[in-house]
């Protein structure tokens, strides 16, 4: 069946759409990001300002997506938007988005959230967090060493550590989320991002302001996406918008979006959240975090040594550390999420709504406690508010906005599955606008609460260490260890819910790319919805890829490199936000006729796979990923996504060192910001190229423009910041953002791969995303 079939049940209402966006946005990021932002800017005032700016920017982006969703009433979000905005050459931009999101961005995000779930859950019961650096040596790094090295890994003791327990929990969480999405957006960023932002800007005031700006920018972006969704009523989101806004050359912009999102942006995001799941879960039970730098030597680094080195890996002691326990938790979480996504779309929606309510309640409790203790440290040397403005520069603001955007990530999920949205003409604007506005308010107040309770020294340490989150120090300050574990477990729930939403939307990106035949040989498979009426194969593929990333991140990839990759992924996403905003303007100028659409709850992951499959972006698998016959859910898209995410989750911290893992996550963030930027551009393009098209919802022109400019500022500013830091101190640059360099290398890889794929794509380039089949539920 096709994903836009008119018989598809509209099971997503206004609250379901609102809950879906909130569930995807609120996660561990709000608990960890404040410390990171504070460490970067150096001032709590600046940090708060940055959070405000980030909220505003994301609000504008959400509004822009509302317009796109109302104009292009198709599932798939950016896949459809980029396809229509940039149809030439060969809908490349839409394809690149689906490719990047399916392969990297969404799987990495899921893997990261799974890690958070695992760590917090373990901390709840074991009383110490799982450090990624406790991972045993990577077997991949010694594939050519002596056979005796295998003894180290075959030894039973090596598999008893918290690393594998963390991975098991993370994969279990992911599996549960995937099942409920296959049967039926607050995430961990709010717990981790405040510390990161504070570390970058150095001032809590600036940090809070940035969170406000980020919220407003994302709100404007959301409203822009509402217009696009109402104008282009197709699944796939940016894939459809960029396709219509930039049809030439060869729909390149749409292809680039799908490519980047499938391969990098979404997988990296999933992997990053999986890591958060594992870390928080382990912290819940074991009381100490899993350090990425405790990982054993990478086998890849010893591939040419003597065979005798294998004995080292066969020894049981090597598998007993917390690193592998964390990976096991994350992989288990991913597996659980993927499974329930494959089972029922209806139950998936209900589960996401439950997660959203729990997350919002948790943040409200943190805000109340924080404001009740507002004056406890005010005026003392331990007060975060005493930090000055020494490190505050416009370039650090751009760098600090990346984790803020990462925390807000998810407000465009509904645009990936407009066909599954109930009465989108009336409800998309409420689901997108209210979710971003409420989350932005909660994020800003949460930052103020965290800065008011946490000690200054702890905040700086949380910003420098990816494994430490500001929320953890918050719990220790206001309660005993047992209550701190309760907070840690709530963070697990938050991260787990984020993984669920990411898995759902990621599979839809794959489907959308498959519909446009952006995935040669596999488009029919990924677009197959026959099993359980879900994108079964898209989910399965995504799960496998995310699992690989998750295992590699933290093992073969160092923690600094991991963060860099995550921020690079967000950078790409902001770029496509920018382009999509432009596409709205383009479509406003050229569209002849369209009906307004307002999209509600969207499971971005699996719907992206479905949208890619509908566009035949996944050759040979499009029909499979677009098959909704089993349980009336994209069963195969969800299953494939879950498998890929599981692979990433396992690899992150295993074959990939913790530093490289962090680089991958930051690279994924960078990619997401890049695609936000591009999608914002697509909105402007569509406004200009389709001026006569009917739009039931139309945002002010300034909304997508501000969203595009903020995304551009993040992309350019963070790049300049990295280059300047690299010239001063090459070692410091690892902790900043080598995303521009990675982008350059990434596009070279994409270009080489695209040259092969474009020769294999023989589908109709103007083929619309078909409707989603209906269920009997």
TrEMBL record:
Q: Which domain of life is it from?
A: Eukaryota
Write the signal peptide boundaries: none
Membrane topology type, per the record?
Multi-pass membrane protein
The protein's location, in the record's own words, is: Membrane
Coarse class of the primary localization is membrane
UniProt entry keywords in alphabetical sequence? Membrane, Transmembrane, Transmembrane helix
The protein's GO terms of the molecular function aspect are: L-amino acid transmembrane transporter activity
Name a GO CC annotation attached to this entry: membrane
Q: Which InterPro entries match?
A: AA/rel_permease1 (IPR002293), AminoAcid_Transporter (IPR050598)
Membrane-spanning parts: 12-33, 45-66, 92-114, 201-221, 252-274, 324-343, 355-374, 434-454, 486-516, 536-563, 575-596, 635-658, 670-687, 699-722
Q: Which Gene3D superfamilies match?
A: Amino acid/polyamine transporter I
- Please state what the protein is called: Uncharacterized protein
Q: Which organism is this protein's natural source?
A: Diversispora epigaea
Task: Name the lineage.
Answer: Eukaryota, Fungi, Fungi incertae sedis, Mucoromycota, Glomeromycotina
């Amino acid at each position: 069946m096709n994903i836009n079939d008119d018989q598809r049940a509209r099971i997503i209402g206004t609250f379901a759409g609102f809950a879906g966006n909130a569930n995807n946005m609120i996660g561990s990021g709000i608990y960890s990001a404040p410390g990171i932002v504070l460490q970067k800017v150096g001032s709590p005032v600046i940090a708060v300002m940055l959070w405000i700016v980030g909220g505003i920017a994301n609000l504008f982006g959400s509004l822009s997506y509302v317009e796109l969703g109302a104009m292009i009433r198709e599932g798939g979000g950016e896949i459809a938007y980029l396809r229509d905005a940039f149809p030439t050459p060969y809908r490349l931009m839409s394809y690149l988005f689906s490719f990047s999101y399916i392969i990297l961005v969404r799987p990495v995000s899921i893997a990261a959230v799974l890690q958070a779930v695992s760590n917090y859950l373990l901390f709840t019961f074991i009383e110490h967090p799982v450090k990624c650096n406790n991972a045993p040596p990577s077997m991949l790094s010694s594939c050519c060493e002596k056979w005796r090295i295998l003894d180290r890994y075959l030894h039973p003791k090596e598999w008893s550590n918290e690393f594998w327990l963390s991975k098991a929990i993370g994969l279990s969480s992911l599996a549960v989320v995937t099942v409920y999405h296959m049967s039926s957006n607050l995430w961990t960023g709010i717990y981790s991002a405040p510390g990161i932002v504070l570390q970058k800007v150095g001032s809590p005031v600036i940090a809070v302001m940035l969170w406000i700006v980020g919220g407003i920018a994302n709100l404007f972006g959301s409203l822009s996406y509402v217009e696009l969704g109402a104008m282009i009523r197709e699944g796939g989101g940016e894939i459809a918008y960029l396709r219509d806004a930039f049809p030439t050359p060869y729909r390149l912009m749409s292809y680039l979006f799908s490519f980047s999102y499938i391969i990098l942006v979404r997988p990296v995001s999933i992997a990053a959240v999986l890591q958060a799941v594992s870390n928080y879960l382990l912290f819940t039970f074991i009381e100490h975090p899993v350090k990425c730098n405790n990982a054993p030597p990478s086998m890849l680094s010893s591939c040419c040594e003597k065979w005798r080195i294998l004995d080292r890996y066969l020894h049981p002691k090597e598998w007993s550390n917390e690193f592998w326990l964390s990976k096991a938790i994350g992989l288990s979480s991913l597996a659980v999420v993927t499974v329930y996504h494959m089972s029922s779309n209806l139950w998936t929606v209900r589960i996401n709504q439950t997660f959203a309510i729990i997350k919002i309640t948790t943040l409200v409790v943190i805000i109340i406690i924080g404001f009740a203790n507002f004056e406890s440290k005010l005026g003392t040397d331990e007060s975060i508010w005493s930090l000055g403005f020494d490190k505050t520069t416009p370039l650090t603001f751009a760098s600090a906005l990346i984790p803020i955007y990462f925390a807000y990530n998810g407000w465009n999920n509904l645009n990936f599955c407009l066909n599954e949205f109930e009465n989108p003409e009336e409800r998309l604007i409420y689901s997108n606008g209210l979710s971003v506005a409420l989350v932005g308010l909660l994020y800003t107040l949460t930052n103020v609460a965290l800065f008011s309770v946490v000690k200054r020294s702890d905040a700086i340490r949380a910003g420098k260490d990816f494994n430490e989150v500001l929320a953890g120090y918050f719990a220790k300050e206001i309660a005993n260890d047992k209550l701190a574990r309760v907070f840690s477990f709530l963070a697990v729930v938050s991260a787990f819910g984020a993984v669920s939403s990411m898995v759902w939307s990621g599979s839809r990106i794959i489907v959308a790319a498959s519909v446009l035949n952006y995935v040669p040989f596999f488009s029919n498979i990924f677009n197959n919805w026959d099993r359980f009426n879900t994108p079964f194969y898209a989910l399965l593929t995504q799960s496998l890829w995310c699992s690989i990333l998750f295992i590699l991140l933290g093992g073969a990839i160092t923690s600094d490199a991991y963060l860099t990759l995550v921020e690079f992924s967000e950078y790409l996403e902001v770029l496509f936000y920018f382009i999509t905003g432009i596409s709205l303007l383009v479509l406003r100028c050229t569209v002849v006729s369209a009906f307004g659409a307002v999209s509600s709850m969207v499971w971005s992951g699996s719907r992206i796979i479905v949208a890619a499959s509908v566009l035949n972006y996944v050759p040979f698998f499009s029909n499979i990923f677009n098959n909704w016959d089993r349980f009336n859910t994209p069963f195969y898209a969800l299953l494939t996504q879950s498998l890929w995410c599981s692979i990433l989750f396992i690899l992150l911290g295993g074959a990939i060192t913790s530093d490289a893992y962090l680089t991958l996550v930051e690279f994924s963030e960078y990619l997401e910001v890049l695609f936000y930027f591009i999608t914002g551009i697509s909105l402007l393009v569509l406004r200009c190229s389709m001026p006569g098209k009917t739009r039931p919802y139309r945002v002010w022109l300034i909304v997508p423009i501000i969203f595009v400019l903020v995304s551009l500022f993040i992309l350019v500013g963070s790049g300049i910041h990295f280059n300047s830091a690299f010239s001063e101190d090459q070692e410091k640059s690892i902790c900043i953002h080598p995303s521009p360099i990675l982008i350059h290398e990434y596009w070279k890889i994409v270009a080489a791969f695209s040259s092969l794929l474009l020769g294999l794509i023989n589908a109709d380039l103007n083929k619309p995303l078909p409707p989603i089949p209906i269920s009997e539920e």
